């Protein structure tokens, strides 16, 4: 939103917003940020929050001010936006391939320390060659597969072998290891979740020890997402965690990953039709909020039977007939999954105490390369 449009809204209630509007509650998000930062401090690990979900410079600055040592990104484009905003320590927790992306990664080293994930010589060698040609060194972090079964090197000897290969390549420097113990996120029982996290993380910390015994310097052992908080922070040998989604604590994190943080991210929608006493139609569909991870949850309504999203509409079915909300009324939803909702919007409205304090551009929106 441009300054001309934003200025009259500052200080007004959120109900003054046109809809659909993506809203972050500042009191809640700041408390969530502070809670994660304290959890990390108390357990002696660094916090490098993933920003692929929020994509917003102003939120990243709040995380850094709370004690984060840097950030984690998914794409070179996100790292470019954050480096331009002044972030100086960035991990791209992803394998980067292709001459164009590698060239951009190399250029970024002039603005920030931008580390990148690798899991093969084929992945690392072109980065090393481009960096050497440019006269820079790119820090790399080996991704270790501890059970997610996506990308990554098998733990143990394969990690050491790749570390040996990296050490022989000019243009790159081995900074450490990273992983994501995602197989634990949906476990309900706390004791079982703790066990699965402990066993998964032990695979990367043992791999780090093996690399050190082989003569490699391993400064970073990175793991941990919001779905495994606080278990990942308690594991010996971990140096930093990447949890980022917990600052918003959407329906997915709360109901499927069993995170006890309050929700900070909401979507405001307007009632456009009441075709029956039990049906509510709103102006926010899949183009405004996603339902792939979890279905958004409406607030302040009588009993809700179902919520369904089409391209431009939300259809809410009530348990019993109700005259409210009426056409023109506004309804607040807890976002289903922030990672696949934020990128749909050009801006986030920052609200404190129910009043609009700021409107922030989603600066890394569309930066998927």
Q: On the 0-100 scale, what is the average pLDDT?
A: 96
Q: Helices and strands: which structural class?
A: alpha/beta
Number of β-strand runs: 17
Number of domains: 2
CATH architecture of the largest domain: Alpha-Beta Barrel
Order of helices and strands: HEHEHEHEHEHEHEHEEHEEEEEEEE
Which homologous superfamily in CATH is the superfamily of the largest domain? Alanine racemase
The proportion of strand residues reads 15-25%
Number of helices: 9
- Percentage of residues assigned to helices: 25-40%
Biggest sheet descriptor:
9 strands, mixed
Shape: elongated
Query: Which CATH class of the largest domain?
Result: Alpha Beta
Q: In angstroms, what is the radius of gyration? A: 22 Å
Instruction: List low-pLDDT spans.
Output: 1-5
Our measurement of the CA-to-CA distance between the termini, rounded to an integer number of angstroms, reads: 24 Å
- The CATH topology name of the largest domain reads TIM Barrel
Summarize, please.
The chain is an alpha/beta fold. The chain folds into two domains: 3-23 and 261-361, D-serine dehydratase-like domain (Lyase, Ornithine Decarboxylase, Chain A, domain 1, Beta Barrel), CATH 2.40.37.20; 26-247, Alanine racemase (TIM Barrel, Alpha-Beta Barrel), CATH 3.20.20.
